[in-house]
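Subject: design request, 171 residues
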């Protein structure tokens, strides 16, 4: 490769790198605008905010909590696997709802939504409102009941099972 051609290649590579960094920064800024500033990160270190609700007897530590300018917090749950083709599993959605409830209980302000971020970079916003709260509290009540030992899933069994809403093994 001649010197001018090498110089052009280096210039091209530098330009591509600058565009890449700018893209990342723009994406980060867009996310900060929508989800708010970073408040806490767990990422397996145990350093995130541990949230507890005595009223509902649940606790948990969201992977990430962000806070918007309007004072509402957003829980972000990180998943290492890619987003499944048929969307987030029900158990992932219920997990985000639980963090929304915990933030609502501990901060007194309900999050507008939570976020599932998958290993392939895709994100799903999980709405949080009175309907979702009602479903989650129904699941919470069911969790106080003993598991009744149904071992072989079938459409008929699962349709009548109290765990159906959160069970990924349901038929
Ligand atoms: S919903 Fe889940 S727990 Fe209930 S019967 Fe089906 S597989 Fe078993």
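Subject: RE: design request

Done. Sequence follows.
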């Amino acid at each position: 490769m001649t010197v001018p051609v090498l110089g052009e290649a280096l210039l091209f590579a530098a330009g591509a790198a600058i565009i890449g960094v700018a893209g990342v920064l723009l994406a980060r800024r867009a996310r900060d605008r929508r989800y708010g500033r970073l408040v806490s990160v767990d990422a397996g270190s145990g350093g995130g905010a541990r949230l507890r609700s005595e009223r509902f007897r649940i606790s948990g530590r969201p992977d990430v909590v962000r806070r918007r300018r309007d004072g509402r917090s957003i829980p972000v749950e990180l998943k290492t696997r890619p987003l499944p083709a048929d969307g987030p599993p029900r158990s992932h959605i219920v997990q985000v709802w639980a963090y929304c409830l915990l933030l609502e209980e501990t901060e007194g302000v309900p999050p507008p939504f939570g976020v599932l971020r998958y290993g392939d970079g895709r994100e799903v916003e999980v709405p949080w409102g009175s309907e979702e709260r009602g479903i989650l509290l129904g699941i919470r009540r069911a969790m106080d009941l003993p598991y009744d030992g149904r071992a072989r899933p079938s459409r008929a069994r699962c349709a009548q099972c109290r765990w159906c809403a959160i069970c990924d093994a349901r038929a």
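The chain has two domains: 1-35, 38-159.
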